[in-house]
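Assemble and predict.
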Amino acid sequence: MAYIELRNVSKSFGIGKDRTQVLSNINLEIKEEEFVAIVGFTGSGKTTLINLISGLIMPDEGEVLFKGEPVTGPSHERGVIFQNYSLLPWLNVRNNVGMAVRETFKKMSKKDRNKRVETYVEMVNLAPAINKKPKELSGGMRQRVSVTRALSMSPEVILMDEPLSALDALTRGNLQQEILKIWNKDKKTALLITNDVDEGLLMADRIIPLKPGPKATLGPEWIINMERPRDKTALNHNDEYKRLRNSIIEYLIQIGEQRASKKENTYVLPDIKPRIKPAPFRKFGFS
Amino acid sequence: MKDRSIHILNFVGLGFFEPAIRLVTGEEVKKNLSLLFKKVVLPILSVLLFLILWHSGATYLYNIEKEARIEKAFADRGEAAALEMQTCIESDDISCQPNTLPSPAQVWVAYKSLLTDHRIITEKKVAFADKVAATNTQRAEQGLAAIKYTGRPSFVDQIFTSLKTVFAGFLLALFIAVPIGIMLGLSDTLRSSVNWLIQIFKPVSPVVWLLLVFMIVKTLTMNSDTDSSFIISFISVGLCSMWATLVNTSMGVSSVDKDYINVAKVLQLNIGQKVFKIILPSSFPLIFTGLRITLSVAWMVLIAIELLAQSPGLGSFVWEEFQNGANDSNSKIIVAMFVIGIIGFLLDRIMLTIQKFVTFTEETA
Ligand SMILES: Nc1ncnc2c1ncn2[C@@H]1O[C@H](COP(=O)(O)OP(=O)(O)O)[C@@H](O)[C@H]1O
Ligand SMILES: [Mg+2]
């Protein structure tokens, strides 16, 4: 039995003629302690997929199962690292993490909870910034806080929605190692959403592309059997790595082109000169 | 040390001292000189210009009034009376001064006389308290109410009465508008069902609120002999001024960033925690902006309401002076005007400073 399972899941947004099906017929199985990466283009529905698994939204069709039970809402067992940090700007690092710890370990004494917060903050090297507010932190530091907040709850699964894509290459590399270290230590199940194939190859056991939407479905999977720990520089000379990388990128380019050509076929452009249209006004409604 | 004091000055809104401090320490002389000119010298010049305009305007009006009086005396009672009137006016005799817009100097004199008046009344109060101290302890033993000073309040007393009223009204607005605003913000259904009520009541004039409150409070306090004018005026002030807070609170609560709501869901906060730990803090900036507007509206309508409700305070001070028509009444009204303006400005500054303290600024990644 799969640990996490999606069966024929579809999800649409909007009403009436604006309704579009974002995800269509998604089937996915993740085993316990497995690290799966999903790669896909922007807007293809990756965040929607994460939200379905975390229980923030419900599928229109099909079902999402966690340990064999249908997911009915968020749970502390499934920690989420949000795409845009989602730190609470009025709380400092300690309290952002502290709030998560307090909610997960309600019976723990205050002292133990504080200790736990400090341990986790130290783990991502943020001890000196523990009393700072998010706006005083750099992007990388905020992302660390976000990672720490999710991990401090000791979830059985970590769902990561492009956790590192906003970071510079150096910070990104460091955080990748830290996440891997934690995953390896506690042997958690992990689902990583990314737009970077190299990141997937470095971290995951399996890479599955999400085809461009609307009606996005999952593509064929690539099993990454390279030995861990994987070293980023050494990987560059690894033949298996090169083979996988080329094969995945080729596939992505191919589905990218398909999308482009599909568009050309569906929209027949009328033979008129382009006219410059003013940008639409943004409306601010008070009602 | 220097940077710290500059920081504090900027924080409390006295940032215009910054170039002066930087100049004293000899920092970037040229830039700071021009800053000093812009932030200090020019404002002072504009104050002077204002005083000059005021003075010449007052003189002009004074002359019109004077001419008219002399003309009138001439028409009514002949040349001798006209001459008599002219000497009377020029001799600064109180009985025949033209009654018009007072000049800055007259206002200054009135200001000082109000302060003297305050000192005298304070002394009287102290003397009175000494005199009745023994009697009052006796009365207290017998379970009777103490004898209170019932003399005329001074100008300063009136200011404090007004501040008390506005504060009571503001608190009333706070305790009505914030909870209701939160409820409206949380529920779309509720918001759309009472929206008409808010839209209709929001623009109602303070005078009408006062009359409405008067109708209700008069009936409710029919059998007690307490002075209801304070109650009437602070409730009216609260009702007039609460709308900005109400609207802002419900808007803030209903437009909380979806990301924060997702955090609340993932952490599985219960509804109370969700409101107090996520929704309220994130809508705090908007709520506070509403409260600031509420306080300034409260102060503005207070004067009119006091004036109409005959409740003690600056409003009734202005009204009494106007009715009084004494020689320096007009000057005292102008003094009151400046005091009202300055206090309003200070209240706003205080709110702004508190707001900076308690609200986060939105991050820009
Ligand atoms: N709550 C929502 N309401 C309406 N449309 C949505 C909502 N969430 C996502 N979408 C739409 O679904 C599509 C996929 O979004 P998303 O899952 O965020 O993509 P990704 O994370 O891959 O960039 C987008 O076109 C987006 O506009
Ligand atoms: Mg996304």
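The beta strands of chain A are 4-13, 20-30, 35-40, 61-66, 69-70, 78-81, 157-161, 189-194, 206-210, 222-223.
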